[in-house]
Fold:
Amino acid sequence: MSGNDEPTLPFLRACRGLLVDYTPIWFMRQAGRYMAEYRAIRQKYTLLQICAQPELATEVTLQPIRAFGFDAAILFADILLPLIPMGIDLEFAAGEGPVIHNPVRSLADVDRLRPVEPRDSLAHVMEAVRLVRRALDGKTPLIGFAGAPFTLASYVIEGGPSKNYLKTKRMMVEQPDTWDRLMAALAELVSDYLIAQIEAGAQAVQLFDSWAGTALGPVDYREHVLPYSKRIFERIRLTGVPAIHFSVGASTYLPLLKEAGGDVIGLDWRTPIDWGRAQLGDGVAVQGNLDPAALFYPRQELKKRICAVLEQASSQPGHIFNLGHGILPETPVDNVRAAVEMVHEHSQRRS
Amino acid sequence: MSGNDEPTLPFLRACRGLLVDYTPIWFMRQAGRYMAEYRAIRQKYTLLQICAQPELATEVTLQPIRAFGFDAAILFADILLPLIPMGIDLEFAAGEGPVIHNPVRSLADVDRLRPVEPRDSLAHVMEAVRLVRRALDGKTPLIGFAGAPFTLASYVIEGGPSKNYLKTKRMMVEQPDTWDRLMAALAELVSDYLIAQIEAGAQAVQLFDSWAGTALGPVDYREHVLPYSKRIFERIRLTGVPAIHFSVGASTYLPLLKEAGGDVIGLDWRTPIDWGRAQLGDGVAVQGNLDPAALFYPRQELKKRICAVLEQASSQPGHIFNLGHGILPETPVDNVRAAVEMVHEHSQRRS
Structure:
């Protein structure tokens, strides 16, 4: 797709801020544990095995499209996946989240990281992209994705999830050369990885920087994170494919997220769409932001909250409906199906 | 102290938005694990034992005042303490945080909670307040504190700390009568508890609602939380003692925190003081908000960040220096001492 042609699929139109017949909807982590079809596959394969086998990754990616009719598919993968060919020794311990056995703490650790050619060493991901695109047959667009440099750095430095990101922040401040080399390497990896996904067929990409807004205020973000994320968006922009930029808790510096890049800014569930747009100013679309907990509420309450998000966003085009963070593992599937229908029904263009 | 007399201590003056000779500083969780003196006491006593023995609570409260010269003491206690006489079966499991063995999930559970007269059943806390006041001898003011209804409710409903507050939110939405009765009971408990602390000698109080901003957006906060916190601040206001209102992650609805109440609004580390003041408008002081991680950085960097906070706050009086969240357990004490000196030195009134 050239950047000058007007797309027809609602999701791709909304990314560009174009008028749509109804608001497109997809959910972060929409392929996953809340679906019985996914749990059935996970009984036989680990997370990394599913990611490594394109047929399995394809099947899991398609499950929520078939079940609920989302307006975009997102490739099933883990944000830590591209770290493995770099030499990161990653394990998903049962019930404990990711563990990295060789965390990066020094310049020597960074220098040991291997350069990655995603077309080769992540060929299974690109094959999954091609298989999903073929299966979707042009009816539903496919989103590729990657973790942003800060969020990835926090895992490789801390050795897993973190509460206060202290080791990450200390490297950022106390070892500026190490930080720069690590962030630069991650920015290059992520750019190459996303571009490889686009070449394989991804029609949009999302950069997940959940932990930047959780950990950092605007001054640190601007100085130590923004320049690296910006490199990625600058390279994506050349492809003509729309990019979504998502963080959590970055509400005091949404303009900096916009400055880093992205055609669409994802807003968390505590950031009203109209409030967020006022912070962001013009020239960017928004995505979000139903509280993931709302999918557990009674149907009438769910409807009220979905309509409230649509109403907040209704003043102008350029809104993609989503959750304000990833879907929760125990979410009732009937409410997911209802949510997709409600968003479509209550956002119909009346003109 | 009557509300009409001008206080002389810098902390109390800053609470009122009055001019000060230097910016007063204290740290959330300033009495605690980062101090060797505290760890020595914890080797012999559990957290709850320290809280139950006024002499021990007094000693621990005074340790950071003696060591670092903070401009305010804050009573050593745990926000969950007043739940115990209500009938909440609370345990601090080693290294795991609080566990509540009889979580509140139904109207019947709420009705089983006992009314609490803090002057009687929390007499040990009031005795500690009196002992601390006597020891401080008018030179350093004492802050009393309590957890806010939402934050306390989240513990009693979830049974401990939570990642997504799903049970709490579901009760809030699906069992409005249960929620109302629980929140009303907690608001009454917290009001009575804070007023008893004030009667015993607390010269200011802080309401901690850390998890409200973490969990909820503005619509839920306004409807399900604000009315209960407001009841507390209305009762505190009658005492003439200043109140501080602190949450984390509530940056999209700081005006609602102000509406709920408090002479001072505490800002988290991601919310620049000037940005926060612009959101809040006039008529309220602010507290904050150095990133707790900054206390681990090299001295020069620490100084830079302290001066940045002071600079952001310098346009008008009514600023209390603090961290943007509680001090971290491994914080080097030398940097704490240096921070107090830096804040005093770099905020001297030049007129």
Remarks:
- Chain A has one domain: 10-346.
- The two ends of chain A are 28 Å apart (CA to CA).
- Chain A touches chain B through 34 residues (CB under 8 Å).
